Amino acid sequence: MPLLNWNDLNRQVIGCTRCPRLRAFCLKVAREKRKAFQNEEYWGLPVTGFGDHAAKLLVIGLAPAVHGGNRTGRIFTGDRSGDWLFRALFKAGFANQPESISRQDGLQLREAYVSCINRCAPPHNKPLPEEMNHCLPYLRTEIQLLAPTLKIVIILGQIALNGFWKLLGSGCRPSFAHGTSVRLPSGTELLMSYHPSQQNTFTGRLTEPMFDSVFAEARKILGIPLNKP
């Protein structure tokens, strides 16, 4: 089977119905809405990755937020975790602005691409194992499309690491620890970070300097000075 192009891949993701539980949940949330967003039209569909198709850096999270990506239609857009991520990408020179509130906000990523393990928001942020398996081929295709330029993967959280390592199918999975770096068989460098969820950021388990240091390390590996505009 020939490798999909970006347009074909994104059409497949958006039209996916492989996980009835997740599809029902996302559509229910899109109908009922959070009170603060009652006047907005929710996306309610599976969410594609986003960013530079010649990226050297790939950031992988778990899934769209229920009232973030599931509402806005773009991964990490319109939620607190995204506030942390895009601010960090901006400070490290991988984004043209420090925030993302909608698909029309003008955000552009430079040499970076953001994706996730699951394309639908799962209840309680806990996809079932079979739901993760259904989604992993989409991430595999993104990695294949990025292969000519990809140098670094940043994994956000333990569950994302589990899914990513299952996709690789290569040997014993390394233990998750914030700031850990692992060289993959392909030569790509894997960096680990706590997920910038409110559970981690509100408790101080993940601080802004801790998070920023992971992206600074990515720039160092790429040989890009931190003061590059």
Low-confidence stretches: none
Identify the CATH class: Alpha Beta
| Count of DSSP H/I helices | 8
User: How many strand units?
Assistant: 6
Distance between the termini: 41 Å
* Average predicted local confidence, pLDDT: 95
Shape: globular
Radius of gyration, in Å, reads 17 Å
Give the full name of the CATH homologous superfamily.
Uracil-DNA glycosylase-like domain
What does this structure look like?
- The chain has a single domain, classed as Uracil-DNA Glycosylase, subunit E, CATH 3.40.470.10.
- The chain contains eight helices and six strands.
- The longest helix has 18 residues, at 129-146.
- It starts with 5 loop residues before the first helix and ends in a 7-residue tail after the last helix.
- α4 packs across α8 (208-222).
- With 229 residues, the protein is of the alpha/beta class.
- Strands 1-3-2-4-6-5 form a six-stranded mixed beta sheet, sandwiched between helices.
- It is globular, with a radius of gyration of 17 Å.
Short note summarizing the structure:
This protein is an alpha/beta fold and 229 residues long. It contains 8 helices and 6 strands.
